[in-house]
Every structure is written in structure tokens, then in C-alpha cells.
Amino acid sequence: MSENQEAATAEAVAPGMKILAQYIKDLSFENPNAPKSLQPGEQPKLDINVNVGANPIAEDQFEVVLTLTAKANTPEGVMFAVELVYGGVFQISGVPKEHMHPFILIECPRMLFPFARNILSDTTRNGGFPPLMLDPIDFAALYRQNLMQAQQAAAAQQQPN
Questions:
Q1: Residue 155 has pLDDT above 80, yes or no
Q2: Are 82 and 132 in contact (CB under 8 A)?
Q3: What Cα–Cα distance (Å) separates residue 14 from each residue in 2, 7, 9, 20, 95?
Q4: Residue 108, SS3 per DSSP
Q5: pLDDT digit string (tens) for 100-112?
Q6: Number of structural domains, the chain?
Q7: Residue 156 in domain
Q8: Which phi and psi (to 5°) does residue 143 adopt?
Q9: Residues 34, 152: Cα–Cα separation, whole Å
Q10: H/E segment holding residue 2
Q11: Which residues contact 159 (CB under 8 A, 6 or more apart)?
Q12: Residue 153 placed within a domain
């Protein structure tokens, strides 16, 4: 095999990903106790949830949706609640079928996260609060955790009552 043929073969099987589109599917910000919630006071308790979903669009294209929710509470009530559903369309090539599921649910949200994080930061700042700066998310650990929970739920359903 010539050097050019070897390079072409390696390129054909090398995993690849293209982001075809990114968009906000849903964005909600609530500041139910304004202007009282904007007064200096006790540090709020912050609850943050992350969810990742994916749907096939075509043979090599997938919509990946990253849902981020954050709620800040004090004993007096809700300071703010924000929810962002941020999506992207990805074209994926060269990934073996057995690795496609983890690739889509780990690598694609990893690409979307910085943009979603920036939107949340701007939204909370525009709502009158300090910008919410989420720490980086380990999507591989999140994938393993969700896989383990799904396996445990499936095992629990199979057990006789």
C-alpha cells in the first residue's frame, strides 16, 4: 500500500464530528420575589441539575440536547430559577456502532457546554444577580452514572415481586 493510500484509509476511519447547528430550544428565567430578592442577604442554596438527551436525525446526524436547571433558594423563598435547553446538530463519522452511544452523550455535550454556560451566566446577570458560573462538567462520569442507574432500574424490574 502506498503512503497516500495508507493516509486515505486512516483518514476514512478516523472519528470525526461536525457541529452543523447550535440553538436555544427553551430558556426560562424567573425572579418571583423581585425586587426583594435583589437585596443583599443570606447566601442562597443553589441546586443545579444537568441532563443530556440525543435523537437521531439521519444516519450520521444527531440532535443532542443539554438541559441545565438552576434554582437559588433562601429561607425567605426562591431568589431565581433558570432553565436552559440548548441543542446542537452533529454529524458524526468514523465511530464504530458500539462506541456511538457514549460518543454522542459525552463528546457532543462537551462541545455544547461552554456555550450553554455562557448563556446561563448572561441570563442570571441580566436578571439582576451575579453571573452563575457553572464548574466544568465531567460528561463521561455523568454518562457512567446514568448507565449504572438504568442498569439498576432494569435489574429491579426483572426481580419477581
A1: no
A2: yes
A3: 18, 10, 9, 19, 8
A4: helix
A5: 888 999 999 999 9
A6: 1
A7: no
A8: -60, -45
A9: 43
A10: none
A11: none
A12: no
C-alpha cell at 43: 447566601
Q: What is the Cα–Cα distance from 71 to 30, expressed in whole angstroms?
A: 9
Q: How many CB atoms lie within 10 A of CB 26?
A: 11
Q: Which domain covers residue 65, as residue numbers?
A: 15-145
Domain assignment present for 119: yes
- 35 part of a folded domain: yes
Residue 12: pLDDT above 60? no
Cell numbers at 31, concatenated: 425572579
DSSP secondary structure letters along 85-152:
EEEEEEEEES--HHHHHHHHHHHHHHHHHHHHHHHHHHHHHHTTS----PPP--HHHHHHHHHHHHHH
Collapsing DSSP to helix, strand or coil, 96 comes out as coil
CATH number for the domain that contains residue 123 = 3.10.420.10
Query: How many residues are listed for the chain in this entry?
Result: 161
Q: Which 3-state string (H, E, C) describes 23-82?
A: EEEEEEEECCCCCHHHCCCCCCEEEEEEEEEEEEEECCEEEEEEEEEEEEEECCEEEEEE
